[in-house]
From TrEMBL:
This is Uncharacterized protein. It comes from Flagellimonas hadalis. It comes from the Bacteria.
């Protein structure tokens, strides 16, 4: 489950482009984000690329520079995007979901009091088999189990109160279909599973003349399991704050940065090799587990057979009362031919007990018979078995008897 899902998590970088700085803490306030330190910065100037932007009556000539998202484990660039050169972009790889495939926290600051960031990815699993879900609730992974929700529900749980506590008032929803479609196309090109992307954008204002965009993004993926299907889903929240006069221009630049996303072929090759290695390791573990299971089953079957053989004698001893009854009714002294005929009809044999000196009737078909002084007997087909050492037979004295006819 884990490998196939997390290979596609770098797609969330597109969603991260809509936001900026982030923290390892799950519930800081909006103001606290701006005071946090960052761990990684990798900017390259692109002075030769200039563009003219005219939005809301403002015209600016700006150059761009490239920011790389880099894997701290290998040093490889995962992907990159172009940002205005007057924006400061800082990123930090985190490995809370997969120790070899990072997700990124991104912080952007710039003119007009621009501040943008994304929250750490929150990961959940929705088991459609109720028994599997119940079983997972009693494991260390209990916190991961949660039914898939809508972005609006995440908004009500996390975003609404956070924005209100930071002095912002809700303005309304903001549709960004071109961005959503672009991100969906990227996700679909990476994932071969049944995947979906949901985004919910809301706009806010505060009395200080700032405007904000808060976006909730959820990616979900259907995955088959032994007991049915399960839904793997994760979400992040992206915040952008800027002066109201620069709000539309900033969103346009954010969109252009998103569309400038470029993958690193070396990283894609590394991820493909990692997936292959993990698939081979999973196959090896499955084969090992299968072999161990077969060995356990074989050992249990051998133990069962040995137990059955041992119990044959015990079960025969429990039928001794029946043998005594037959002896009283068809005891010694009968004519040999008649007795043999009766034995054939009743599927019995007549044996002589040297302890008592009497003959007894026993069920036919066993290799040998053992008797005690009371006429109780044991049928046995194991030539190495002796009941005198069997603690289940109450330490009686048993003697091997022979056929009388």
């Amino acid at each position: 489950m884990k490998t196939s899902t997390l290979i596609f998590i770098p797609c969330l970088f597109f969603i991260s482009c809509l936001g900026g700085p982030a923290s390892d803490n799950s519930e800081p306030s909006i103001k606290e984000y701006g005071q946090q330190s960052v761990a990684y910065e990798d900017l390259e100037d692109r002075n030769e690329l200039e563009m003219e932007i005219s939005i809301s009556g403002r015209t600016q000539i700006t150059s761009k520079k490239v920011h790389h998202l880099r894997d701290a484990r290998t040093g490889l660039v995962v992907n990159s995007a172009e940002y205005p050169s007057d924006w400061k972009v800082i990123s930090k790889p985190i490995y809370t979901i997969d120790q070899k495939l990072p997700t990124f926290l991104i912080q952007i600051t710039g003119p007009d009091h621009l501040k943008s960031f994304n929250t750490p990815i929150t990961y959940h699993v929705d088991y459609q088999d109720p028994q599997m879900a119940e079983a997972m609730y009693n494991t260390p992974y209990e916190k991961l189990v949660r039914p898939l929700v809508t972005p609006q529900q995440i908004f009500n749980e996390e975003v609404k109160a956070r924005m209100s506590n930071s002095g912002f008032q809700y303005v309304g929803e903001r549709e960004r279909p071109e961005v959503t479609q672009y991100l969906w196309n990227k996700l679909a090109s990476k994932s071969k599973m049944n995947s979906s992307l949901s985004m919910y954008n809301t706009e806010w204002k505060n009395p200080s003349g700032q405007k904000a965009l808060a976006s909730v993004s959820i990616i979900s993926m259907q995955q088959p399991t032994i007991s049915g299907n399960m839904m793997v889903w994760f979400y992040t929240v992206n915040y952008t704050f800027v002066d109201e006069t620069a709000y539309e221009m900033t969103l346009e630049r954010m969109k252009e940065a998103t569309f400038s996303y470029a993958e690193n072929p070396q990283w894609e090759h590394y991820v493909a090799q990692l997936a292959q290695q993990r698939a081979q390791e999973n196959q090896r573990r499955m084969e090992m587990a299968s072999a161990q299971h077969q060995n356990r089953m074989q050992a249990r079957w051998s133990a069962f057979n040995a137990h059955q053989e041992k119990m044959k004698g015990i079960w025969a001893a429990q039928d001794a009362n029946h043998a005594s009854f037959m002896n009283r009714n068809f005891g010694a002294g009968s004519d040999t031919g008649q007795r043999q005929f009766i034995n054939m009809i009743n599927e019995e044999e007549t044996v002589h007990n040297p302890i008592t000196g009497n003959n007894y009737q026993v069920n036919a078909g066993s290799t040998e018979y053992w008797m005690d002084s009371e006429g109780n007997y044991i049928q046995n087909d194991d030539l190495f078995y002796t009941p005198n050492g069997d603690i289940n037979l109450n330490n009686r004295e048993w003697v091997k008897v022979k056929k009388a006819y």
